[in-house]
Amino acid sequence: MDKIRKQILLTLETNSRIDLKELAVLLGTDEVTIANEVAAMEKEHIICGYHTLIDWDKAGVELVNALIEVRVTPQRDQGFDKIAERIYNYPEVSATYLISGGYDLLVTIEGRTLQEISRFVSSKLSPIDEVVSTATYFILKKYKDHGTILANKTKGERMLITP
Question: Which Gene Ontology biological process is one annotated for this entry (predicted)?
Fold first, then answer.
C-alpha cells in the first residue's frame, strides 16, 4: 500500500467526517487526488463503511451490549466461515470475529435488556448444531471504544508543596 493511501486510512479511521480539502492540506496533496484515492478504496472494499460512535448512556438510551465467546465444530471444507456467516446475519449481532484461544468466535450483540440478550443466546445461538458452547459477558461500562475515550477524565489532584 502506498504512503498516501495509508495516511488517508489512518486519518479517516479517527475522523471519518474530515473534509477532503482539509485532508488534502494535511497530507500535502490536492483534493482531487484524495477524492480519487478514497473512491478507489471504497470500490476495492478497503474502506468498508463510515460509522458514528455514540455514547448511548449520555444520549439517555438504554442499550445492553454483550460479548459472547462461541466454541464451534468447524465444517468440512468450509472451516468456520459458514457458521460465522450464519451468526453474523442475525440483526442483533454487531460484530463477529474468528479468535484464538479457548473459543473460536467472539460475537458482540446489543439488545434492550439482559433478558433479550440471554434469549438470543438460548434461542438462536445455542441451538445451532455446530455450536458446542458459549460464554456471555455483559459490558457494564465503556471507557474507550474504537480509539475514542468515553469515560469522563478525572482531574489529577496534587498536593500543594510549599518551601
Answer: response to amino acid
